[in-house]
Write a structure and sequence with these properties.
Strand content of chain B: 25-35%
Structural class of chain A: alpha+beta
Strand content of chain A: 35-45%
Structural class of chain B: alpha+beta
Number of helices of chain B: 2
Largest sheet of chain A: 9 strands, antiparallel
Helix content of chain A: 10-25%
Shape of chain A: elongated
Shape of chain B: elongated
Oligomer: heterodimer
Helix content of chain B: 40-55%
Number of domains of chain B: 1
Radius of gyration of chain B: 25 Å
Number of strands of chain B: 4
Number of helices of chain A: 2
Order of helices and strands of chain A: HEEEEEEEEEH
Strand order of the largest sheet of chain B: 1-2-3-4
Largest interface: A-B, 34 and 34 residues
Largest sheet of chain B: 4 strands, antiparallel
Radius of gyration of chain A: 20 Å
């Protein structure tokens, strides 16, 4: 009986970890692709040394004339704010992407959270979920590390995801991904 | 319990243990594949980063089309990712190719260059990951 109990418990836990890990890997890949797509359109219509407004180790703010909300080129400057916020969701920390102070709702760049308010299901857009941390490092045109906003031409982003699987709350699953995003429009401007 | 019952009980234990072991082995193999999948995703992003760097430097005129091979061919890089405690080795090859990406003999006249990035390193990465991109001469 002890053997059967131990076997089934272990089987159940390992299966759960496998299922949750596979979804996390997929989610992590999608999140990396979304952030890369976001940064690729930074700086459209902006001088290359004015693209980055704030370059912290946990937050990136940049300017562009591309509107991510409906994926069109506009004649107005937009400010995009990429940062991690805590306490926004029961699912862990979230990455918020704001355009001119409002959360983005375009699913090409963000996921959404289903939340219940008075039994009504409400979708909260503007998040990348299951995040534990996001760390930025910045590079100049010669790939040297820099923290001078006007010199930044690419960003290295280290994303760590954390998820509590059902029955494994005390042993969360962690995955991480490092991506390098180039401010392509800044490079194009340099070549003009 | 007579001898026959004892033997049957023993067989039952052996049978159950064998089933348990084979299930466990299959699950651990599955876990291994998942870990490999995670490393493949990371390797893909590292390949993309190098290929994007070539694009970016062409855009900015830091390099010209003719510099792709001398600047990138047979170069290697090492990337250590702190959060994973893993070291990835990148091998870059740049070659002359035709419009379909077929490699041509060195020195051939062509409007196309192909850059291949191969990532290896972590023990759990079962096979090296390779990605390539074609670059076209646009100003003549």
């Amino acid at each position: 009986m002890v053997m059967i109990f131990t076997f089934t418990t272990q089987l159940s836990e390992t299966t759960q970890r496998a299922i949750y890990t596979s979804t996390m890997i997929d989610y992590m890949d999608q999140a990396g692709t979304k952030i890369n797509a976001l940064v690729a359109l930074a700086g459209i219509g902006i001088d290359e040394d004015e693209v980055v407004v704030t370059a912290d180790s946990t937050r990136l703010v940049f300017k562009t004339m591309w509107s991510y909300d409906n994926d069109v080129l506009t004649n107005a400057e937009h400010t995009i704010d990429l940062s991690v916020e805590t306490g926004m969701s029961d699912l862990g920390n979230v990455i918020t992407i704001k355009q001119d102070g409002a959360l983005l709702s375009n699913p090409a760049y963000v996921s959404y959270i289903d939340t219940y308010i008075d039994s009504l299901k409400v979708k909260y857009y503007g998040y990348i979920l299951y995040v534990e941390s996001m760390k930025f490092e910045y590079f100049d045109e010669d790939d040297n590390l820099t923290d001078e906003e006007e010199d930044i031409r690419s960003a290295g982003i280290e994303l760590t995801f954390k998820r509590d699987a059902v029955g494994l709350v005390s042993r969360p699953l962690r995955t991480s991904l490092y991506i390098r995003c180039f401010f392509m429009n800044s490079y194009m401007r340099m070549g003009v | 319990m007579n001898m026959m019952e004892m033997v049957l009980a023993l067989f039952a234990v052996v049978l159950f243990s064998s089933i348990a072991l084979s299930y466990n082995q299959a699950l651990w193999r599955q876990t291994d594949y998942l870990f490999n999948a995670q490393l493949v995703v990371q390797s893909n992003h590292l390949c993309h980063a190098v290929l994007d760097e070539v694009d970016a430097k062409l855009f900015s005129d830091q390099i010209t089309f003719d510099d792709i091979i001398p600047d990138f061919d047979s170069t290697t890089r090492t990337v250590y990712i702190d959060s994973q405690s893993e070291t990835y080795n990148l091998a870059i090859a740049a070659t002359v190719c035709d419009s379909t990406g077929t490699i041509l003999p060195s020195g051939s006249t062509s409007l196309f260059r192909r850059v291949d990035v191969t990532v290896s390193g972590p023990t759990a990465l079962k096979h090296p990951v390779t990605m390539n991109r074609l670059y076209t001469r646009t100003f003549m």
